[in-house]
Amino acid sequence: MTRLARITPLGTTLSLLLLAVLPARAAPPSKRVCVEIKLQQASEEVAGEAPGRQAGAEQATGKAASETGQAAEKASEEDFAARRERVEAQIQNLLQAHPASTPFLPLGQSPLAYLKRLFEHFVTHEKGYEAVQEDCQERIVVELYPLTEGWTAFARYSGNGREERVDQLYAEEISQFAERAVEALLGDVPISATIKRDTVLRADSMKSAQRIQGTHHFILNLGTQVRGGRFDTAPADPTATVSDTLRVFSPMTIAAGYRGRFENWGLEAVAQVGIGTSRTAAKSNQAGGHIDFGGDVGLALHFLHYLQPRGIHSFYWGGGANFELLWFSAIKPVGVRNDDDRSLLLGGGLDVDLLCGWEFMRASAVQFYLQGELNLPAYVIDNEDNYGAIHTWFPTLSVKLGISF
Question: pTM score, two decimals?
Fold first, then answer.
C-alpha cells in the first residue's frame, strides 16, 4: 500500500504534463444558416393589369393620342394600386390568427414572424448548425402561398438543394412543420420520412380522389396448346403392357373474361376451357393402363405492361397465375370393362404464367390481340386407381387469338 501511495502522485503529474503539451482538439465550426420567410403576394396578372401595360399600344396611335394615352396610363396605375392594396389587405386578414382558433400562436404575432423564429430554433438545435441573422454560409428559404385556409408551403435549403412541400399548412401546425422541415432539409431526406407521433400534419392524411379511369373490355379468344409429360402409353402390340413414355398433347382452348387497360398497365381475368383432341381406341390396349388427356378448366389472372400504351398497336408482356383442374382417362383391361372401358383420373393446381402479346386495331370498336403464354405448373400430377397411374410434371405452351370490345 505504501508503494502505491508513492506512485500515484507521479502518475498524476505525468497526466497533467501530457494534457498541457497536447493541443486541445477543437470542435468543427457550426454552419451558419440564415432563415428567410416569404409570403407570395398576388402577381400583377391577378391583382390587375400592370402599370405601363398600355404604353406600348399607345405608341402605335401616334402623337395625336399621346395626351389621352398618358391620362389612361395614370388611371391604370391608380386602378392597379387600388387593386393591389385590396389583395394585400386580404392576405393580411389571412395572417391574423384568432387566439381561440390558434392556441399555439403567441398573441399579437403573425405566423410569418413566429415561423421564422421556430425555424431558427430548430436549426440551432441541429448538431453542426447555427441560425444567424447575417454573414450566413447557407440559407433556408420558406415560401408561403395563401389559400382560403392556411398556405401551401415550399421550403428549400441551399446547402444541398433539397426542396420540400406541404400542400396545405394551417397556422396551428407551423411548429410541427418547422421541426420536420428543418430535419428533412438539413438531413437531406423527404419530409414524409420525418413524421413523429406528435408532429403529424393534416396534409399527411389528405388523399387525392383523382384516379386513372382506364378502358374496360370483354375479351374472347380461341387457341391451341402444346402440353408435354411422361405417361403410361400403349405399345404397338395391343396385348403388350404399357410403358412410361414422353408424350405431347395439343388440345384446343376457348376463353372469355375481362381486360382493363390503365395507361402503361393492364389487368386480365379469364375463365378458360381446354379440350383434348386425341384419344387412343380401347381395343389398342387390351391389357389396360394407357393414359389419355381429356381436357382442363381454369381461372387465370394476368398483369400486363404495354410498350406503346397510346399507339394504334402495341406489344405487351406480363405474368400471372392460373388455377386449373385437369382430367385424364385410363383404359381398363378387357376383362373389367363392362359398361365403360375407361376410368377418370383428376389432377390440378396453380400454374405460374409468363406471357407476351400484340394488340392491334386498337382504335376500332372491336380490337384484336395475339398472345403467347408459357404455363409452368407449381405442382406434379400424382394420381392413380386400379386401372392406371399418373406421376408427371405437365407444362404448357399456348398460342391464342382474341378479340376485345
Answer: 0.57
